[in-house]
Specification:
It is a single chain. The chain has 99 residues and is an all-alpha fold. The protein has one domain. Helices cover 82% and strands 0% of the residues. It contains three helices and no strands. The protein is elongated, with a radius of gyration of 17 Å. The termini are close together.
Length: 99
């Protein structure tokens, strides 16, 4: 059973790193929206490509648009933090019980 515990701990660790990196990409996306960079830049297109689908889903679900302020990145960051605490934490706890 210790192999399954180590596997789950590794999955939880990688998932935690991926969620942290994605959270930073959302923060970069938010800062870029203030600066209005070149839309044809490949890095800008990549960031928009991986963040826009989730933000569009949040905007459709919860219309948080209040004037010129868009709260959907904030909601997405909260969802990422919840996922880190709940899913990653649960995987770590399960991994420790299997060891």
């Amino acid at each position: 059973m210790f192999v399954a515990g180590n596997f789950l701990a590794a999955v939880a660790g990688i998932l935690g790193y991926v969620l942290t990196a994605y959270m930073w990409v959302v923060i970069i996306y938010s800062v870029m929206s203030w600066l209005s960079p070149d839309p044809y830049n490949p890095i800008v297109r990549f960031i928009h490509g991986i963040v826009d689908p989730l933000l569009d889903a949040i905007r459709r679900t919860i219309p948080f648009l209040v004037g010129p302020i868009d709260f959907s990145p904030f909601v997405l960051i909260l969802l990422i933090m919840f996922t880190q605490r709940f899913v990653v934490g649960s995987l770590y706890d399960l991994a420790m019980r299997l060891r």
